[in-house]
């Protein structure tokens, strides 16, 4: 049975840029466009040429793409023809194969925002779209506030679509601009639009996540007959974001009935790069990736409940809706007091530690984990610290070096210009191969500002580890999380540190103490030890 | 027209606890239960009594609630009767009004996970539910993997439901345990279940967000006839989380057709507390609240696009799907102070600072808040620090004393018994009434253990403030939260300190710095200043 083609339209670089706190550079836009092209979307909306220097520079420098590069703009302004509108001209000057222009379809907005008559708005749409077509471009019409407009005046909203269609628009995109329309309503209205004579294969859907249903509303629109979906990577976008293509793509490819009815431009191989792509965008935005993201999140295939974890060991299909490898993600069976011995061996195996089922060390490791968790430690995410703890019980934890003592001082006082400034200084004393090494570092960074006591300690610890020094040179602290928790009856501080190295490894370690500096030092030390096991091996 | 009652079942304390990295203490569970009860959910699932000490302690100490407190467990184990199952007995011993037990409805799981025959599983369900009913409890049956089971063998899945129904279960909850079922499929299967004779008003829905459609799937189930929705606050839960009640509640109350067809137990007034409730949970979890959350996120009513922002000023309905005040959220228009000023005056009045509408200080305060927030400060909860900032702009911030400098040292080394121990020592130099005072304190508590550098600093700061000393004697630091956040382009540490005094006041202050000790000291200092304004007044 032949499947129908569904088209994906990515607007990460335009609507995604409306996210609070997001401001892409031209270089970042180019990097994202290349990744989208490799993924296999059909359209890449690059921005609004002429609206700001970044977007203009993007269109000036973007190399040829397999996807149709699209410039965004709006219908011509009142009181001039489309051919004489300089804003529209700037959009066309970007020279893209497709141009998408947004226009009004809701009578309230025509009157309130544009301040023109309903007929004049129809003429505006017609003239603007016809102008794009006359310039040889593929024309898309973004029908702003379409669902609200249709509810208010269905006949007029449909007239707006017909005006664009008759003027030659390839796609009419039904936009739920305010994000308030729920999936069942989207389904009903799309069904009525198609029944009114607008062909489904000329319709697109553009939803927002203001009710946490943008993905479902896009699917509902597809079920009702639209054949283009607009969305963004990781659901970036104004307010609560746009429909998340990172969730939609695997659903369309892997889930019935979609996978059997439709075909999209993404290959199974490209789908395996989806998790990496999602994380890359977070890297560019300097955001910590959300663990709960559908398909690609770090927790998406994490099985914490003891009953689930033991069933997963028998057969992954018991508690997984897809194989995580299909989207480039992986299964994770965390340790916690709710999980039993059944998943311990699996977790050890993942760390390269094969242990026989009957080994009494298993019981000791579980006891050690439980005792540690009672003190405030948590091994859900700190898998590197878990490995070190297990190695200690298995007698497989090498002693590369010994920390004899450390001291860190934070001082705040007035500088010469009478301003309060602070500075931290750390001394760490280690013994490596029988030799005592004293290292001292301060917390000042290149810009002259104080990065605090943990930074100073981290630098002093990594300053001279003798023959192990080369192995830790490419280590980098990438995240640092602190929380106050309960250790027995006292409040203690738990620090989780994420580290990275030149080989692309990323690992998490934990430290706990009533003293926050101490907790941080413990996590730092564990990070170094884990790295040395990887690069030096078990026998130093 | 009378509306039909829909029931809300919250499982934040049970399924929500399956979130990777989440481990509630008993005290936190009690706090969340009280908040859920105030919100107006119908059922609060508190955990699995007997499964771990925290859950057992919760049921032992939880006070009476308006909502039906519910204990979670599973059907009896094979080879014994429900009456002789000690695991089930522990669940019943919690003494809750309702008990929810999970059981199998998917033939594959009956055979793979339980290893029993299909008929024996029906008998297991019947005996277990009947036992709950015989003990006088309201019985709920969580039909695990129901949708997968129904797809594999609809007749058997229905038989499982009927077994529970006939044994007296009040609710049969259709669980999409693996989270892979899409909304249209949920709608179809629920419709068929009801057509097969199971009454919709005995059915509940329990979805997971593995395809980012848990909220929509819950709505689809309601449309098909179920009358109970299970979910969690902020969508906590195993893997990608459960259906998010924080999104579902406003949709059910504010959006057609739901608001016209259904009634839930949440009042319009309680709905106004929803944003605060969502943030409270993040506070407990020490998570940075997600700005993009539907309804309650910090960006949910933020209008970044220039065209949108100017239209919003003319009429908020142009780009907002609901009034943000209905859910206790606020509009955020980055480029304009117009919207901010009335909120600001209300907030100042709450701190006892009456300011005239035209006062230019209002603009200065808004600017100061904006500048501070860009550095990483947050005044959402730190209302005492907000008051101090406003007082500075209003010229109403008394200078009780001046901190000239401080120094804190953390040292870790071996003690006489060859054990590693740490000790912190702090020196604080203040000037009060022209007199310089040096105070030194260490971090050792009564038990001889080190409480860390912030403790030492706090003690040194509060040791001698001259004639103000009596006013701060009854101050106590009750909570301390640390978060790594973004200050401009750099990661900085934000510390929030909660303080309490003998008069029962409780206040929060904030400090931000790349140096965690510095950030803590700033928050400590603000706490002392706020207290002095309360007890000494504005003119020292």
From TrEMBL, chains A, B:
Short name of one Pfam family: HCS_D2
GO biological process: isoleucine biosynthetic process; L-leucine biosynthetic process
Ranges that cross the membrane: none
Record keywords: Amino-acid biosynthesis, Branched-chain amino acid biosynthesis, Isoleucine biosynthesis, Transferase
Enzyme Commission designation: 2.3.3.21
CDD domains given in the database record: DRE_TIM_LeuA3
Catalysed transformations (reactions): pyruvate + acetyl-CoA + H2O = (3R)-citramalate + CoA + H(+)
Pathway(s): Amino-acid biosynthesis; L-isoleucine biosynthesis; 2-oxobutanoate from pyruvate: step 1/3
Single annotated GO MF: (R)-citramalate synthase activity
Domain Pyruvate carboxyltransferase: 6-272
Top-rank taxon, per record: Bacteria
Family in the record: Belongs to the alpha-IPM synthase/homocitrate synthase family.
Protein name: Citramalate synthase
């Amino acid at each position: 049975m032949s499947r129908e083609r569904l088209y994906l339209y990515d607007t990460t670089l335009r609507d995604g840029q409306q996210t609070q706190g997001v401001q892409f550079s031209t270089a970042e836009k180019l990097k994202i466009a290349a990744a989208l092209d490799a993924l296999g979307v059909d359209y890449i909306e690059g921005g609004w040429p002429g609206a700001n220097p970044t977007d203009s520079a993007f269109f000036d420098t973007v190399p040829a793409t397999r996807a149709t590069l699209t410039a965004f703009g709006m219908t011509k302004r009142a009181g001039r023809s489309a051919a004489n509108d300089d804003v529209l001209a700037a959009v066309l000057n970007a020279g893209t194969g497709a141009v998408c222009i947004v226009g009004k379809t809701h009578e309230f907005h025509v009157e309130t925002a544009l301040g023109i008559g309903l007929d004049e708005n129809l003429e505006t749409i017609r003239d603007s779209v016809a102008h794009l077509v006359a310039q040889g471009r593929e024309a898309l019409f973004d029908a702003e506030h379409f669902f609200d407009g249709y509810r208010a005046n269905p006949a007029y909203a449909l007239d707006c679509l017909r005006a664009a269609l008759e003027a030659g628009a390839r796609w009419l995109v039904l936009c739920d601009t305010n994000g308030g329309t729920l999936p069942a309503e989207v389904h009903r209205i799309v069904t009525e639009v198609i029944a009114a004579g607008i062909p489904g294969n000329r319709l697109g859907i553009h939803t927002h996540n203001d009710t946490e249903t943008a993905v479902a509303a896009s699917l509902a629109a597809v079920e009702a007959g639209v054949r283009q979906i607009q969305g963004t990577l990781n659901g970036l976008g104004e307010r609560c974001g746009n429909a998340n293509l990172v969730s939609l793509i695997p659903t369309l490819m892997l889930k019935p009935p979609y996978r059997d009815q439709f075909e999209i431009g993404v290959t199974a191989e490209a789908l395996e790069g989806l998790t990496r792509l999602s994380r890359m965008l977070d890297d560019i935005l300097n955001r910590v990736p959300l663990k709960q993201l559908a398909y690609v999140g770090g927790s998406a295939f994490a099985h914490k409940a003891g009953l689930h974890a033991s069933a997963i060991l028998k057969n992954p299909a018991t508690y997984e809706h897809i194989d995580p490898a299909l989207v480039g993600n992986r299964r994770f069976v965390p340790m916690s007091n709710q999980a039993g011995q059944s998943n311990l061996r699996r977790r050890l195996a993942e760390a390269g530690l094969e242990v026989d089922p009957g080994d009494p060390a298993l019981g000791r490791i579980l006891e050690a984990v439980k005792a540690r968790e009672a003190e405030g430690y948590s091994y859900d995410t700190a898998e590197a610290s878990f490995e070190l703890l297990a190695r200690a019980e298995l007698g497989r934890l090498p002693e590369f070096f010994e920390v004899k003592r450390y001291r860190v001082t934070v001082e705040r006082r007035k500088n010469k210009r009478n301003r309060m400034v602070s500075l931290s200084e750390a001394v760490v004393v280690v013994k490596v191969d029988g030799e005592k090494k004293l290292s001292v570092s301060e917390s000042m960074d290149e810009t002259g500002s104080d990065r605090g006591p943990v930074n100073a300690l981290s630098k002093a610890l990594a300053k001279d580890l003798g023959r192990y020094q080369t192995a830790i040179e490419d280590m980098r602290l990438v995240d640092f999380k602190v929380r106050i928790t309960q250790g027995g009856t006292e409040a203690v501080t738990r620090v989780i540190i994420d580290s990275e190295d030149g080989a692309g490894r990323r690992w998490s370690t934990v430290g706990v103490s009533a003293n926050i500096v101490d907790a941080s030092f413990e996590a730092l030390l564990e990070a170094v030890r884990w790295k040395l096991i990887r690069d030096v091996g078990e026998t130093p």
